[in-house]
Amino acid sequence: MKIAFVLLTxxxxxxAGIERSVGSLAAGLRELGHQVITIVAGxxxxxxxxDLVRLDSVTLVRPMLFDDLPRVLADPGPVRDEVRGILVEHxxxxxxxxxxxxGLGYLAPAPDGVRTALMAHLVRGDSRMxxxxxxxxxxxxxxxxxxxxxxxxxxxxTTGWQVLPNPLPRRGTPPPSGIREGLRxxxxxxxxxxxxxxxxxxxxxxxxxxxxxxxxxxxxADAGFELWRGMQxxxxxxxxxxxxxxxxxxxxxxxxxxxxxxxxxxxxxxxMPTTWPETFGNVAAEALSAGTPxxxxxxxxLPHLVGTAGALVELGPAAEVHHISAVTSRNAQPPGAEEGFxxxxxxxxxxxxxxxxYHAASEQAVRQVAGYEPAAVASTFLRCVGVHD
Length: 389
Known about the structure:
The protein has helices spanning about 15-30, 70, 75-90, 125-135, 145-155, 175-185, 200-205, 230-245, 260-265, 280-290, 300-305, 335-350, 355-370, 375-385; strands spanning about 1-5, 35-40, 50-60, 65, 95, 115-120, 140, 160-165, 190-195, 215-220, 225, 250, 270, 295, 310-315. The protein is of the alpha/beta class. Helix 1 (about 15-30) packs across helix 14 (about 375-385), helix 6 packs across helix 13 and helix 10 (about 280-290) packs across helix 13.
């Protein structure tokens, strides 16, 4: 079977959730023996593989502002025709619009006879989401039950939606118990994020207790989009300033997707300080797959994803779930967040100081994401869209 994903912003090793989930799902489908292409915006790169099909009708600058999209897609005719032509040329059986806008779900340029799926990774109550649903895709796939309920709360008709979790890049490899105990005693704390205020990295670093002497290692990787010009540079500079004179803070370069799970496996804890409700939580899932407990805020899908495999604390007053178009604030830290970050660090030190509780969380971690391997999620995807493996 031939399957296509459409995601204009996709690039291999892109530090962004939708792109990572599409890459892992495509890998799972190939593992099951299917042919997969991913249709993306230009410009082309010398490292592009044959299964990456670049559009001539849409070129994106890097980094792109979300406000640039209406201009880029102002004339939908050329991109609609080009995508439909690619689907015909490649004899595609199933096409998945990976988002209402950057996945072209609102245009839905599928030829007759091709089954369609629309992915929902963000809470969107905008007109493009309603237009996408009006095309009546054969399946609407949400990354979590949390996303389904919040979308309904935003006024979207979620009747018939199905939950498809983001797949892991591969099965995790937890370290042996002796190594895990060594990590509990002296190992580093680690996290990965794009430089975005809602990821909470600056709040995390600012609140490190003065007597905390372990390495706190943060991988910062620029994504191909930002909410205002220079946003990622602004956040990176603030992180660098917070690291000055504090040798326990280490800012590390980006990692390829296939190295993330091993990186998190060698951490005492994975930190998830996001102050905005995650609709899935890729970093948390990859840490759990390696037996690494997760510490973060009790927001979004994290309570379901993490369960008892770590420690989640309240950030502060109830955090609102924003539509993607509304997440533009330069100050993403809600009122009372300082106390929330203090609670996060208290929970961190408490978990590291509790051998029994820590190892119980580590053992539970792998169970939390059982069945999230690429081929397993790919099988679910096929059933959701009404075809067989």
